[in-house]
Amino acid sequence: MSSFRIALRVLRTDRRTRTSALLIALGVAVATGLVLLLVSLPGATEARADRAAWQLTAVPSSVSDRPVGDPTIQHAASEDVTPDGQKIDRVDVAALADPSDITLPPGIDRLPGPGETLMSPALAEIVDATPGSQLGERYGERVGELGDEALAFPEQLVALVGHTPDEMPANAAELGGFLPAGEGPDMLLSLLAGVGVVVLTVPSLVLIASAARLIAARREQRLAVFRLAGATPRQVISMVAAETTIAAAAGALLGLAISPLLHHLATLVPWDGGTWQASDFELGVVPTVAIVVGVPLLVLLAAVLGLRRVLSAPLGAVGGHTPKPLHWWRLLPLPLSAAMFAYFVSEADSEIEAMLIMVSMAMIIFSINLAGPWITALVGKAFSRGWRRPSGLLAGRRLTEDPRGAYRATAGVALAVFTGAMALTVLPSLESLSGASREYADGVQYVQGEGADLQRIAGETNDRLARYGQSERAVVVGEAYLGAGDRQDEYVKVVDCRGAEQVLPIDMRGACEGTPGVYAPYPLTGGELSLAGMPGEPGTPLGDVPVRPVEERGDAAYSTVVVDSAVVPDDLELSYGTVAVPSTAANSDVVRTALAAASHGAHIESREVRLASQEGELGDVRRVTVIGLTVAALLGGCSAAIATAGSVMDRRRTFGALIAAGTPVRVLARALRAEAGLPAFIATAGAGIAGTFVGVGLFSLLDDGDAVVTPWLAAPIVLGLVVALIASSVCTPALNRVRSEPLSDE
Questions:
Q1: Which of 271, 275, 537, 716 could pair with 420 as two cysteines, CB 3.0-4.6 Å apart?
Q2: Mean pLDDT, to the nearest integer, of 452-469?
Q3: Is 17 found in the same domain as 121?
Q4: How many angstroms separate the Cα of 149 from the Cα of each of 49, 163, 288?
Q5: Which residues are CB-neighbours of 338 under 8 A, at least 6 positions away?
């Protein structure tokens, strides 16, 4: 009889083997589906970036096929917001050649002329439902809509606004055409995807291993009987390979079948302002086949490697054996892998080293699971010596004699705790970087421009504000460089005193009541004051002007010196400056419309918009982190429950004898909970420390500052311990099942 037919007969006749095979198939399906999804994420972000490449002005370094030849368009990109705070991507363009000769990106059927605009369908709906003074008059007459091929995501708000060349913003660039695709994947999401492959795939493999161990003892005995009956090692390996392949292959195919559903669910998760198109998560045939074949091969390899004892000592498998003691060298890989991770993090500047960071992180996880059983055995010895209750003695004996089996139930939970500690290190650290300094007062909206154009923008803005019935007026703030003794080329703002009170985050403290002068939040001493339009230029003396003290208002304010425009020499020309307009919550959208229309698409800045953008980015990271932690916790809890049930099944003969001798089930259940609780405490504490270490390293890839450590880091440890104890509650039903079955069955 062939090995395959034997495997099928065992699956038909043995209910516990069928249960184990079904759980293995489920674990392989979960692992396959998750890997297929996570591996497709970088490609999905790249597909997004390719569709939106035309919206960029700056040429990404990853783009090799750049527009060449004579300039055909002027191009400027900026961001805007709707009245309810949604981000709008605005692209201003002017033709420098015949519009019919300009190659248009997919999804754009015509180049808008001066005063015309093309909008995405989502933006068009918002514009139609909003008064023109609050949104629509920023863009001009709508003459068409952008197609899906021109949008990064279906809900993207985009406006392509046409101009004449002399109306374009000062920061417009002359290009040989719209930028082609090729910006590359989103690096942050790619990093999160790489982390996800490690921290979600490994718990899936632990779940598979736990399912395989559900009938480990019974399988060993069955295979040992075949060996004693004359079966060769090759035949035994073939039997196990056939049995495992049936379950693993079915699971891989199931994972492939459910992957479209997972991809559809992923399209509903917002990132960077919107969801995804269904085609974004398409994965090539080669990586798909590699994953669908590779995951079952890993399971098959693990099953074959687990046959060493049956092949070498079948009598020991039948009659039982004493596990070999564990050695202290199991602790060595942990510091070595941590040192490797720290080195690659410090040197990371290429894709290869980024991949090595993921590998070293996986090695840290492996090292934790390698050291866990040795520490479990150590604690078990101490527990046996210091505890005298029957349940405690039984638990201590189990931890000492089989630390691998005792620790196995908490391996998945440890990975979930590792993930949680890592996330709770990175997230608060990212949140600590949020915030925006107050270069201008709260509520002030402003655009930067060249000196010659500032007065025009301010005048047109004021005309529109008057037409809209608003009392606010634009203030022109110049940029200059002050010299005062040893202090040279110090950046200052040039504005009249009353204007400074309106738009700058400083308290003039009555300084405007005197003669015009220089207003500084700190002393200016050391010599005669001079003013220059650009750094490094010879300064023009200001003469005998008073220097009056002022105070900053609010935290995170710029320590900016203000020079009253009335004391600036007439022959000094300022090359750059800002037009700033104060606004309130009630009229901020009207003020933005007036300023946007007057500046012809220049980027309008405000502290509130920067804070909202940062909060949106942090919200994306929080969202994917919560999803990842939830999946990791569920996988860890399931593997712990299966491993605990498998531990009872492995020791049916022992527990049956104890129950037959009169040992109460509650005593045995208490001992099993202690077996789960002690390794869980060890595993979660170690995983929490390791996760914090890895989180600090990953944060250093994003910023050079110090990571933030909060008391919330204890939450994953406590939660992991609770999950392990809840999972161990399956021991009571399993023991009752042992009590209900005849002991002679074993």
A1: 716
A2: 92
A3: no
A4: 11, 23, 25
A5: 364, 367, 690, 693
The first and second tokens of residue 253, run together, are 């195919």
- Same domain membership, residue 430 and residue 362: yes
In a domain, 526, yes or no: yes
pLDDT tens for each residue of 368-418: 888 888 888 887 887 777 666 777 777 777 788 778 777 776 777 777 788
Both 468 and 574 in a single domain? yes
Q: Is residue 234 part of a domain?
A: yes
Please give the tally of structural domains in the chain.
4
Q: What confidence tens digit (pLDDT) does each residue in 167-183 have?
A: 888 788 888 888 887 65
Picking from 153, 175, 197, the residue at the C-terminal end of a domain is: 175
The helix or strand, by DSSP H or E, that contains position 517, with its residue range, turns out to be none
Task: Please report how the helices 285-305 and 15-51 are oriented relative to each other, as an axis angle in degrees rounded to 10.
Answer: 150
Residue 15 sits in the same domain as residue 141: no
Instruction: Report pLDDT for 60.
Output: 47
| Long-range contacts of residues 653-656, Cβ cutoff 8 Å, at least 24 apart | 653/743, 653/746, 655/735, 655/738, 656/738, 656/739, 656/741, 656/743, 656/746
Q: 87 lies in which domain range?
A: 67-175
Q: Determine, yes or no, domain membership for 62.
A: no
Boundary of a domain, candidates 605, 628, 647:
605
Q: What is the rounded average pLDDT of the residues 530-541?
A: 85
The amino acid at 548: R
- How far is Cα 386 from Cα 380, in angstroms, rounded to an integer? 10
Neighbours of 684 (CB within 10 A): 28
Question: How does DSSP classify residue 331?
Answer: G
Provide the residue type at 569 as one letter: P
What separation in angstroms does the CA of 57 have from each of 54, 150, 174, 179?
A: 8, 15, 9, 8
- The amino acid present at 725, given as its one-letter code, is L
